[in-house]
Amino acid sequence: MATKEDRNFMTVRLALDRPCTNLLQEVLRQHVPEKDIHKLLNDPAKKRKIYPLLQKLKQETILYPPTGVFCGSYAAFDLSLLYVLIRNLAGIPDHKTGWGNAPDINDNSSAANIERIRLLRNKYAHCSTSHLTDKELKRERKNIISCIHGIEKTLPAKSTTFEDAAEELFLAAKKQEDLDEIITKCQEDIVYTLNTQADHTARMDSMHNELKNTQDGIYAVHERLDGHEKLLLKKTQDLPETEYEKSIFSQWEEDDAFFISTRGATIVDELIKTNNLVIVTGHSGSGKSAILQHIALKFREHGWIVKPVYSFKEIHDAYKYENFEKDRCIYVFNDPIGKESFDEMSFNEWGPYREILSILIERAKLLLTCRRSIISDPRARGFFEPEQGNIDINKQKLVKVDINDSHCKLSTDEKKIMFKKHFPDEKLTNEDLNQICKIDMYFPLLCKLCRGEFMKKKDFVNFFEEPVPVLKTEIENYKVKDRETYCGLVCLILSKNNLCLHELEKNTELFSKILNLCELSPNTSPTTILSKLQPLCGFLVKNIGDKYFFYHDFVMEVATYVFGSEHPKETIDFADVSFLRKRVSVQKSISNDPFTILLDNEHINNLVQRLLKELSGDSFVEVILNPCLRNAHVISCFKQQIKELCDIKNLGFITKTQLLNTEKQQFQNLLNESLYTRLEFVGSNTVCSPLSVLITFRHDELSKTYLDILRNKKSYFRRIVDAFSSNILKKKQY
Question: Contact 659/686 with Cβ under 8 angstroms?
């Protein structure tokens, strides 16, 4: 309920918005009638002067409509617009200190009183508090009545219409205040009567309380028994939770506090009860992970072992080296074959573990999430799908659920419940709430992001409709206003979205370069930078154990796009080579997502230098899989730099074989299956050289350039190349 001071404040606001505004409308009308104002507005000199002022008020289209001229009424004009028009069009002489300035206390001209009304309106429109004491109300009432009286007596009608309206408004407010006091007194009397009645029924209440206490005691015994049972279950579990896993579950529980059960979540929950392999698909930010986390936490409460995993090798190792109870273990794996887009390297990883996973799923549950665009990619064909003549996967009860299809997608009512769950105290208009609930993309994620302290003063509707520009602006602002926070985000980007103090302190060279890039002192400590990420938790980042991650893939995509577009050269120089493969492109294409960092021609040489450098290291397969290596301009620059390195000392790495972690049995299994790819062929070799991989992936121009240079060297190298080429041909035939 509003306080007396709150009502005093609103009374002053109403006096300024109604009688004062109506008075200024009449002042303007007396000097410039509505039917004549368009003549002044369209005068070139006056238009140049007045149009910028209207733009600041965002009201230029009222007086300068797209077609025709203004032919309306002043009745809808607010006080700010009226002041601009009176000052610039009415021809009223300046007051002593001039328009726009506080008038002299002894100046009683119309201009001075109009100025005073404007200043009062600005004071109460932008006031940091909404309270006004009786003494302050009395003072402001006197000021407002004085201004109205001074202006109204200069009008031709010589009436007191507006002064009377203001006095009536203040009088009505006083009557309402008296009525409120009477109501308050009545309420106090009612409370006293009710308390008296309560005393008369005290004995009966006492008996009810005794009965309730007895029931509570019984419930407490049941709760203790349930607690002992749960404790016993935990003690008998074979796989104790690590501290890191406990941190993950803590993060899940924090998010789960705002979870609501939707149609999609209910369907997934029922399917998981009767199926061991469930893949939940949908758009980015649609709540896939939240649904699986909620369900996994419920299983965990009932004594199940829940294992969050990040690779198929983790699942294999857990099954191979740890004991777990049959039908009591759940693995949760988000984005197994790519986060932002289909990742051939990740997809290829699951193949060698296909057989062991088929066995494991007969004894445990495997819950996966995958973006709809990735699972529907033709290259993902065969991912956990039954092969012809093989019913093993069907036995394991594979189910795919798209939570964005017509049966599962969020309804408008579910969106409203979800929004109010996150913002119970937010007083949105029905129009704004309905506008927000029209949004489908990222809706559950945007509810989470808006919950953070940094978004509480933002325009909800704007953020839900345009989340990317809002996030981009927020991140760009850190670069200007808070360079240490921006530095923390850059460290997170260049650490492959997995940042901890130990790694930052160990990689001093990269940290120094990032400090220089962010224009910070070289003496800035890693601890200082990491401390700046803590306030961003729940908005841009999350903290699990001693590590920081981006809050969601969507946030990471926006952040990397902002940094990569602003600093393409530094991105090329410092980012992980797998990041360059997934997020950087040199040409536009239909398949490019909106967060792909597009390089200009001037940076292609930098990219080629980095790729050429990595070609001699352990990540040469990542280089050869990079789509940029198919671009004609990149190939041309690559060939030129190869020729510049034609000294055999600098080119020796191209034929140097390196050890690959592939078992013979895995290779034999791949040969027996129809999904055998070039990447699997490369993985089938225990050792491999960059040149052999270039040839395998049909980088013909680059392969030919290397081979031509090597053939022109001494006979020793010709023998190496001949033997190497013969070996490659044999492998192709095989």
Answer: yes
